[in-house]
Amino acid sequence: MIRVMGAPAPPARRLHRGALGDLLDPATYRAALYVLLSLPVGGAVAGLLTAAVVGGLLTLPVVVGAGFLLAALWLVSALGDVQRVLIGLLGVRVARPAAPAGPGGLLGWLGATLANPVTYRTLLFHVIQLPLSLVCWVVLCTLLAIQVLGLGAPLWAMNSAVPVVWGEWTLRPGALSVAGLMLAGAGALLVSAGVLSVMGRMWTRLGVALLAPDGDEAARREVVALRRAAGRVALGDDLNATLADLTEQAWQASTAMAVALDAPDGSRRAVSGVPGAWPAAQEPGPAPGEASVHALPGGGWLATLPVTLPASAGTLDGGTLRAWYPAGGRPSADELAFLLSIADHAGTALHAAQLIERAGARAGEQERARLARELHDSVAQALYGITLGAKTARATLERDPAKTRQSLDYTIRLAEGGVSEMKALLFSLRPDALEEGGLIAALTQHAHALEARHGLTVHADLRAEPDLDPDAQAAAYRVMQEALHNVVKHARAHTVWLGVAQEGRWVTLSVRDDGRGFDPQAQGRGTLGQRSMRERAAGAGGYLQVTSEPGQGSVVTLTLPRVLPGGGA
Q1: Which residues, at least 6 apart from 112, have a Cβ–Cβ distance to it below 8 Å?
Q2: Residues 6 or more apart from 424 whose CB is under 8 A from it?
Q3: Sign of CA dihedral 335, 341, 345, 348
Q4: pTM of this prediction?
Q5: DSSP codes joined into one string, 491-520
Q6: Domains located in the chain, CATH noted
Q7: Which of 57, 257, 292, 437 suits a disulfide with 5, CB 3.0-4.6 Å?
Q8: pLDDT band at 37 (very low <50, low <70, confident <90, very high)
Q9: What is the strand order of the sheet 543-548 is part of?
């Protein structure tokens, strides 16, 4: 359940900002610009619609009349988009309604447009705009005349020899008259600022009420935004990009002027909407699962929603999601529920990033442990054997040269095997080793390591580098590595045949041994190692085949799709 904190401030509290508050508020001048443009825009809209409707009615007996009336209906929606852009001068953002759903064709569009309530609300705004803007102009022009007369009184007093003649009356301004006029002009200036502020709020509420999409369309827009946000979180490739996209989705699907995502320390993670300085938070953030909405001192609203992480994350505080609304645009409970869902998605993205970081650290620990075992079992043993061989050669150098040569040969073989084993370890540790050296080089190093370390005879039929993409190349190396490991661990073989060939659209890699073999049927779907190899093969678009008989050795064949020169598989 969503609990909204922060009751709306009383009107007197919201409107009272001091005598100069409205005069210094930038929103006042935005309202003045809107009122200045509303009259010519309203006149142009009224003229276009009137001409289209009257022209259609007059020419209705002929075919042209129907075209005029259809054009008038289209103009209602098209000019509504112009009104939505114009009302953005007031700091309010009104989303453009989606195209009416219905069957295709002209008749389908006509029926859907006539059945859409937004069409009639937009038409009502067009009808109201011209007379209402005319009233605003008359009021503001009257106040402007008083300001010019009053604030220009000093210039009049400086040239007092010129009287003011009105019929039979002749007026010469005195000092008291000038002071009174200046006071009236200053008062008219302050009153004009307050009147413009009221007009701005009036036009804002009127525009939101008549030009904004209906509730069902807003709900559809929020559902689409949540679906995209969920997909972005599931992708989770870049945390900063994910948080920026979530903020953008929240702004696009809401009526807020701007939406920002802040870290627990107050730093800004992402922001979408109007640029500029954000209002400072006036009160502490809400509790998890709650949304707070507070009136801003200069007008407008600030909604604050918590970004909550699961308990397993170690901390529940993931920061806050804040949405800034203009005066007269207080968010509804449904919109706050949508924003709270976006905040939950942000918490999920942050938690997923933490899990990925932990998994990476854990994988690093496991890789270091594996490397330690490999070094102990291979390189360390090779170095120990080299030490023994060198000591034996030194002890027999003078009394038994033949044995010395045998010891040196043994030492050299161990050294070569240690080098090959070290190269194989480097290939397995460096993810770019395959890209730099290629699959053939990696398998060659691994074959040398098997000969030196385990005394196997390896016949490698490794020809030209196969045409595989990087993912298939990595999968091929891992599968062959696992197959050779199984030979050493289970087969008790003396000889291994390793081959790579490509023909047509396929690349075939095989490992054959002369070991004791096994019964594949008795093992069902195979061991964990076989399942891992099959999964790697399937992930690269290929398949794995294992054939064996007791006492007849085993053959592991991996078939992968070849990347053709034209780029296809």
Answers
A1: 100, 101, 102
A2: 442, 445, 446, 448, 449
A3: positive
A4: 0.46
A5: I--SEEEEEEEEETTEEEEEEEE-S----G
A6: 20-158+172-211 (no CATH), 447-563 (3.30.565.10)
A7: 292
A8: very high
A9: 457-462, 495-503, 506-513, 554-561, 543-548
